[in-house]
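Hi everyone,

Forwarding the result from last night's run.
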Amino acid sequence: MMRKTNKRLFCVCMQTSQNILITKANGEQELFNSEKLFRSLVRSGTEKETAEGIVEEIASNLAEGDQTRDIYHRAFARLKNIKNHMAARYSVKHALLELGPSGYPFEDFLKEIYIALGYTAKTRVIAQGRCVEHELDVVAMRGNERIGAEVKFHNSSAVKSDLKVALYVQARFEDIAAQSGAQTENDFTNKFLITNTKFTKQVEAYAACVGLQLISWDYPAQGNLRELIEQTGVHPISCLTTISKLTKRRLMDQGVVLCRQVREHMDVIDSLGLSPQSVARLFQEIDALC
């Protein structure tokens, strides 16, 4: 149980910690933002008083140059000691980095988000261009809306999708559009480039110019990946805290990418050799999360 937070002490920690530089995954430094940490904890379902206590504890032990990943791990550990499902929600951004190494699980995860939004969706769809065939990572349809999405997966938050990625994606869509007069199913109403990390500013400027829509963890301000996950309640299996990375990998190899899909694949669970106690803890976390 998190001890009751002294409000005055919390405010002091919030103020003094604002002047401490921390190091991001890409090596850049920024001022520690205690309010940002507080908001992310509350979004994970943490009660405000508990979130204040975690922020106070982290802020009071913060040192110049601390890594953002270390701050995340400290907060994650505190949440896991309280409730596994809150730690799971808090870890979603980092859990997306584990939907690799091929990136196929991330594509399948995005397909499930579109399905939850009311679309019919498929992954790895062949579309004929004027010059060559292209494999589109995700295609989603709802009414007259037809979305084509190219997906760029990274297994490190330090890596951003850069301009050359946007250029080749736009070129692929232009080739497909040139052929769409003969094949109207390739006439996309919306063209997307989606990544699990971030885009460079050049990409954002170029995409706005050519009409290519972008989705990353926190871009655009509305309709970003974080918001879509919160809106649909679709959580990747990689965010679960009660099973090992190896077990998650084996489940993903069998096509299980969502927490809520686990119950639909009891044959896979049985084949993993988990103890009854481990299975019970797993389902308890899933029920609280989903």
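The longest strand covers residues 133-142.

Cheers,
N.
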